TrEMBL record:
The lineage of its organism: Bacteria, Bacillati, Actinomycetota, Actinomycetes, Pseudonocardiales. The modification N6-(pyridoxal phosphate)lysine is found at residue 275. It comes from Pseudonocardia xishanensis. Substrate binds at residues 54, 147, 275, 308, 390. Signal peptide: none annotated. Homodimer. InterPro entries: Aminotrans_3 (IPR005814), Aminotrans_3_PPA_site (IPR049704), BioA (IPR005815), PyrdxlP-dep_Trfase (IPR015424), PyrdxlP-dep_Trfase_major (IPR015421), PyrdxlP-dep_Trfase_small (IPR015422). This is Adenosylmethionine-8-amino-7-oxononanoate aminotransferase. Gene3D superfamilies: Aspartate Aminotransferase, domain 1 (3.90.1150.10), Type I PLP-dependent aspartate aminotransferase-like (Major domain) (3.40.640.10). It comes from the Bacteria. It catalyses: (8S)-8-amino-7-oxononanoate + S-adenosyl-L-methionine = S-adenosyl-4-methylsulfanyl-2-oxobutanoate + (7R,8S)-7,8-diammoniononanoate. It is found in: Cytoplasm. The record marks 16 as: Participates in the substrate recognition with KAPA and in a stacking interaction with the adenine ring of SAM.
Length: 425
């Protein structure tokens, strides 16, 4: 009988991978912070998941409370349309999100995924501008180095040249881009001056400024100064633009604060969250907006936010998201310790000749090389050291589950440093 990996090859496309590319690893089980994997050559691995399954499994795998939430909701009903109907899991989750979010954000739209939440936020901004008498404001100001998803509108506000969507210039709308915000305090003033100039030149046609607060994720794991975010809030206000904060990767404590906008002490007009929202169990995202924005939409001729996914507010996803948020205060207590532990265990990487920089923010650790990572080789070398990582570009990074113990973080550090040393020197 063919192995699972053999059956997969040439049949399934995997993210940003060719059909005949390197063989994936088969997952045989997962629990806590660990994955059990099998390679195409039959090798088996028991590894610490350094990625939280792309940053969403913050409570680990098979958490009893989350398993119970899904089972309990299945016994009631798994899905109903949200058009004209409502249900307890959706209302409870929205109440929780409003209680956690910055105070001005009072209204919730539940979407299918992070990328879809960005699409909704863009449409919301355009509808808002039209509702307030500025229908010509349909473009967006975004940041170089940013990443907001793979759907068409979201692609438009990703970095147009260095991002993953440069092959689609005729498909996505042309937007306005500010330079990548700086990491050094000494560079902030000049960056702010440039941002002010660019936004002023395009304010009459722009609906919103779209940013990943403080940490740009898939665009390069780049952390920038909170003063830049504070400046964007001020600039948006000066030109009557909305500030859209994409916290799909950073929300729920990944950088330390509950939301990354807290680093700058600002409140966005629109907030997108996803990934960790359900603890990695089901796909779900949310768009929160201020009362000012919601009131303008309600007063408009359409009166509604013009979006309505089939699986909007799926009860299973809402139920497990609610349970995940209940676990969050306890899980988040480990983030400061994880930051300190990652700083210590990744420090030796700075002594490797292939390493350009090591940086840590909250439960995010990044080792940037001086050239592209040999992804298959580094992945296998890390697995042989008991760690699952998924490098990209010139980065070997980790976003471990919040429930990771010190021993897990030590293993992650040793695995990353050892794999880079073995493959790249």
């Amino acid at each position: 009988m063919s192995s699972l990996v053999e059956r997969d090859r040439g049949l399934l496309w995997h993210p940003y991978a060719a059909l005949d590319g390197p063989a994936p690893y088969a997952v045989t089980s997962a629990s806590g912070t660990r994955l059990r994997l099998e390679a195409a050559d039959g090798a088996r691995f028991d590894v610490v998941d350094a990625m939280s399954s792309w940053w969403c499994a913050i409570h680990g795998y098979r958490h009893p409370a989350l398993d119970a939430a899904v089972r309990d909701q299945v016994d009631r009903f798994s899905h109903v349309m949200f058009g004209g109907l409502t249900h307890e899991p959706a209302v409870r989750l929205a109440e929780q999100l409003v209680a956690l979010a910055p105070p001005s954000l009072r209204h919730v739209f539940l979407a299918d995924s992070g990328s879809v939440s960005v699409e909704v936020a863009l449409k919301l901004a355009v509808q808002y501008q039209a509702a307030t008498g500025r229908p010509g404001r349909r473009r967006f100001v975004a940041l170089r180095g940013g990443y907001h998803g793979d759907t068409t509108g979201a692609m438009g506000v990703c970095d147009p040249e260095d991002g993953m969507h440069a092959l689609f210039p005729g498909l996505v709308a042309s937007q306005v881009f500010l330079p990548r915000p700086p990491a050094l305090p000494s560079d902030v003033d000049s960056w702010v001056a440039a941002a002010e100039e660019v936004v002023a030149a395009h304010a009459d046609t722009a609906a919103a400024i779209v940013v990943e607060p403080v940490l740009q994720g898939a665009g390069g794991m780049h952390a920038y100064r909170p003063e830049c975010l504070a400046a964007l809030r001020r600039i948006a206000d000066e030109h009557d633009l909305l500030l859209v904060a994409d916290e799909i990767a950073t929300g729920f404590g990944r950088t330390g604060p509950l939301f990354a906008v807290e680093w700058a002490g600002v409140e966005p007009d629109v907030l997108c969250v996803g990934k960790a929202l359900t603890g990695g169990y089901l796909t779900l995202a949310a768009v929160l907006c201020s009362g000012r924005v919601a009131s303008a939409i309600t007063r408009s001729p359409q009166r509604a936010l013009l979006h309505g996914p089939t699986f909007m507010a799926n009860p299973l996803a809402c139920a497990v998201a609610s349970a995940s948020l209940e676990l969050l205060p306890t899980s988040r207590e480990r983030v400061p310790a994880i930051e300190a532990e990652l700083t210590a265990v990744l420090k030796p990487a700075a002594d490797l000749g292939s390493v350009r920089e090591v940086r840590v923010l909250g439960a995010v650790g990044v080792v940037q090389l001086d050239g592209p990572v040999d992804v298959p080789a580094v992945t296998r070398a890390a697995m042989e050291r008991g760690v699952w990582v998924r490098p990209f570009r010139d980065l070997v990074y980790t976003m471990p589950p919040f429930v990771s113990l010190p021993a897990d973080i030590a293993a992650i550090g040793a695995g990353i440093v050892g794999a880079i040393g073995e493959v790249h020197g």
